[in-house]
Amino acid sequence: MLATWEKVSSRARAGVLTEEQVRRVAADMFFRATGDTVKRATVQEFLEGWAKRKELEVADASAGEYRRIAEGFIEHLRGRAEKDISQVTPAQVTAWRDLTAGRVSAGTCNKYLKILRGAWNQALREGVAASNPFAAVRTLKARQSFKTTRRAFTLDEMRRILKVADGEWLGIILFGLYTGQRLSDITGLAWNQIDPAEGVVRFVTAKTGAVLDIPLAAPVLDWIGKARVPKSAHAPVFPTAEASTVSQNSKAFAKILVAAGLRKELPNHKGTGRGRSAKREASEVTFHCLRHTATSLLKNAGVSDVVAMEIIGHKTEAISRAYTHIEQKTIKRAIDALPDVTKAVRK
Question: What is the CA radius of gyration of the chain?
């Protein structure tokens, strides 16, 4: 061991000692002293493994976001992602943060920073990193900017949307309008969650884990009656959308809005010359607007806030689902009070 140390010292004095050589010598000395090997991983190896584990730990949408964030940081580091994870510096993290801030909002950038900070904390716990460079990088202050507010669709807008929608998307939109549920929960529906005889659909929401039994409105039941039901009860109701990512489904709905004249043409990244890293512009009309529309229609029909929140799945401090029980027949009356927006657009 002494001879090895003298050799390293000699190379250092000659100015030819590399960081990798130091790491190898240190690892060799650690093995001789303890009998254990030093845990090592490249940035890419660790982040890919971390993102893979997240698929088992969090909802699909969150796991997908973690994977994209990890891939973005790996892409930013380029060749340095093949180096040991311990070689990532606060300066590199700061450069990534500043570049990211040019593409997304300050709040989103800070969220990415927090997520990767958590990844490096995991690396510390696993013993593959000696420090957390993300801990030394501060979050960004919120920028003063116009915040796009999601709104409800009008009945006329809904009819325009339904006029250009067909197939799976007609069903997805009707479920969104008459249940008020999120896009990912609707596209993830299986046929065994729907009971046409009872006229009820059961959602287990990905975001909160809430179990919602929602009576089906007549337009939704009409769509179900015309749909091709496969032999397997576990088959997805919307197979194409179920096999797509949330981002892909959001873009598909955006194209429907464009066709309905409710949104500008989607940007062509090649045409702008700005690439996919260009900052995205927020739109006031997205699939989430159907959630607002459902709430508005319920309230316009005279449904109480308590019942509306029971259907949509909202939770507040004042009203907890654990302490408030609403009979199913009350919820059904509320759903039946909603207008049939398909009457003017029957195909």
Answer: 27
